[in-house]
Amino acid sequence: MSKKYRNKNIRKQKQARHRLIWLVSGGALLIATALFFAFGGSGEDSDSGTPALAVDQEVIEYGDVKFNTNLTFEIKVTNTGDGKLRFKEEPYVEVREGC
Question: Which residue spans traverse the membrane (predicted)?
């Protein structure tokens, strides 16, 4: 094997190593950036402020309704506070008969 061929081969191996190092570093940086933005790295403080719930109707009156009749209603729920409003569970709605 000639010295010239061996030097060329060594140079190719070094280039391949450098390319691999750059690919691994770039991939790690890309994954770290994705994780940062996926898990709340938006820069906003999520616990600042106080949320406040406002409902446009607290009581819905239908009058006399026959038994087993399906009725629908719509209410508007808004956050009047200055913090984020999040429901940890499904909101509780109570239906009372004869009130």
Answer: 20-39
